[in-house]
Amino acid sequence: MPLFICHCPDYPNNLETRLANRPDHLAASVKDKEAGNSVFGRAFLSNEVSTHTAGSPHADQPKGMAGSVMIYRYPTLEDAWARIKADKYWTGGVWDKEKVTVEEIIGNPIDETIKVQ
After folding, report:
1. Where are the domains of the chain?
2. Which of 61, 60, 70 lies closest to 90 in space, CA to CA?
3. Where does the record place the YCII-related domain (predicted)?
4. First-to-final CA distance of the chain
């Protein structure tokens, strides 16, 4: 089944909205993992708190969350987009809808996590 990488930047200065919607987003992520649709998912950090600019991880990294990146396994690009648009971060106004991208990626046949099935 194809793999899709989803890059979902947050609207600027939107941490409070992100944190308010986070429990629902994480609950859906658990269901995605159990169903075999989620391969990987993490928040990404703003440059102000990232390790490459700050030198080492900060205890306040959650305050620097600036978006999400996920790898999903779905039959079609439309299915991957439907999953993104059903996410609480989309419906709750966390992700900047004009900047979200979903692209198919090539799986690695020797990697058990990211191989195409």
Report:
1. 3-105
2. 70
3. 3-100
4. 5
Condensed to tens digits (0 to 9), the pLDDT of residues 65-111 reads 899 999 999 999 999 999 999 999 999 999 999 999 999 998 777 66
pLDDT tens readout for residues 12-35: 999 999 999 999 999 999 999 999
Cβ atoms 44, 67 nearer than 8 A: yes
Q: Select the CATH number that applies to the domain covering 3-105 from these four: 3.30.1360.70, 3.30.70.1060, 3.40.50.1370, 1.10.10.10.
A: 3.30.70.1060
Residue 88: half-sphere exposure toward Cβ, Cα within 13 Å: 13
> Which residues have CB under 8 Å from 42's CB, separation 6+?
68, 69, 70
Distance CA 78, CA 74 (A): 9
Report pTM: 0.86
Residue reference for tokens 């169903």: 35
